[in-house]
Design goal:
32% of the residues lie in helices and 15% in strands. The chain contains six helices and eight strands; from the N terminus they run E-E-H-E-H-E-H-E-H-E-E-H-E-H.
């Protein structure tokens, strides 16, 4: 994209704000940004938690969220999912049960829209210390459920062309 995707407008609203609205409507509280442009995200009304490992990939962001946010479960969603619905968030959260992660399944696992139990933290930290940075790379190390959701909700925006779709 050439810029911070969180701040890119989709249908006139910054993508991060769209994702936050879906999380908020689904009952997730607080909704905070992990990393990113603190000043710009704060101006949009976000609380921001500094990523403990900026630039090191999404696994570090999930570990940061689990370490710094309250509660036994943290819902982590990428900022580039502007079609995310509150119903999808509710389905993912409800499926978690006693598992360590609820990762929706479309044509593949979608760990950038997942509920993570604090119980997964030790395994995630070990994987990170061993050099893993991918979320898909840790799914075989923890107990995961894969709820089915509407794949349209998890269509991410990666290019300027995607903004027109």
């Amino acid at each position: 994209m050439g810029t911070d995707k969180a701040l890119v407008p989709w249908q006139g609203v910054p993508m991060a704000s769209r994702v936050a609205a879906a999380l908020d409507e689904a009952g997730c509280n607080p909704v905070v940004a992990i990393g990113g442009d603190t000043q710009a995200l704060s101006a949009l009304g976000f609380g921001v938690v500094a990523d403990s490992w900026p630039g090191e990939g999404p696994l570090g962001g999930v570990i940061t969220a689990l370490r710094h946010l309250p509660g036994a479960v943290v819902m982590v969603v990428s900022c580039d999912l502007p079609r995310l619905s509150p119903d999808t968030v509710r389905i993912v959260l409800a499926a978690l049960g006693d598992s360590e992660a609820s990762v929706p399944l479309t044509d593949r696992p979608e760990p950038l829209c997942a509920a993570w139990s604090r119980a997964a933290l030790p395994a995630l930290e070990v994987a990170f210390e061993q050099g893993e940075r991918s979320l898909r790379g840790v799914l075989d190390r923890i107990q995961v459920v894969h709820p089915k959701v509407d794949p349209q909700d998890l269509t991410n925006v990666n290019t300027p062309r995607d903004l027109r779709d």
